[in-house]
Write a structure and sequence with these properties.
Layout: H1 3-18, H2 22-34, H3 36-58, H4 62-67, H5 69-93, H6 108-120, H7 123-136, H8 144-174, H9 179-202
Helix pairs in contact: 1-7, 1-8, 2-3, 2-6, 2-8, 2-9, 3-6, 3-7, 3-8, 5-6, 5-9
Length: 205
């Protein structure tokens, strides 16, 4: 691959990632509900999910992914149910404490798993790597070195896109110290998470 090819890929990925979708919505909700640390763990999961799709495309697994479309439907439904579960937890916890965080769902590993699940079920991500990517990169000519560069570019671009979302949402959360505001913020995050759940289940790749 040429330098221009890498640049084109990075630009296309950055634009696609910056457009709010189920992943960004869920990330913002996680930052609002659990803070920056949990949001960054969620982001790592999002990025790993993208790398899984990138690997599938580069190593010629796109056809398998299309053939096993039912599997992606199941993953999407599971992701939607998990997001709905988180939304219910956030809503129910709003009136119980002046702190938003707490519980297994706020632990970094749980956030990490949620990030992977949301990405694997995200129609926008599936379309980008299995449909758009082959029009940008000639996957037949990608070498092992090229793949390593693509992995690094993917991680850097996605981190650069999602970190500001997480930081701004976490900062807004931390600026609201009063219990009444925290309760409202918790319910708002629950509503966002519920919206992401509906979007994840309803949309199709």
């Amino acid at each position: 691959m040429t330098l221009a090819g890498f640049f084109t890929y990075a630009l296309a990925l950055g634009i696609a990632a910056a457009v709010p979708g189920p992943g960004i919505i869920a990330l913002v909700a996680r930052a609002l509900s659990s803070g920056f640390r949990a949001a960054m763990a969620f982001s790592v999961g999002l990025i790993l999910g993208d790398l899984i799709f990138l690997s599938a495309a580069v190593f010629g697994l796109a056809l398998i992914a299309e053939t096993l479309g039912e599997v992606f439907v199941v993953v999407r439904l599971c992701a939607g149910l998990y997001l709905a579960y988180l939304a219910v937890r956030l809503w129910r916890s709003a009136g119980k404490t002046d702190r938003i965080e707490g519980g297994h769902a706020d632990r970094p590993f749980a956030s990490f798993i949620a990030g992977i699940t949301v990405t694997l079920a995200n129609p926008k991500t599936i379309v980008f790597y299995l449909a758009v990517l082959p029009t940008i990169v000639d996957l037949r000519t990608v070498t092992a070195g090229d793949f390593g560069v693509l992995v690094g570019l993917t991680a850097l671009v996605l981190a650069a896109v999602v970190t500001p979302y997480a930081a701004l949402a976490a900062r807004a959360r931390n600026s609201l110290r009063k219990p009444v505001f925290r309760a409202r913020l918790n319910r708002g995050a629950a509503a966002i998470m519920a919206g992401a759940a509906v979007w994840t289940v309803a949309r199709r790749a």
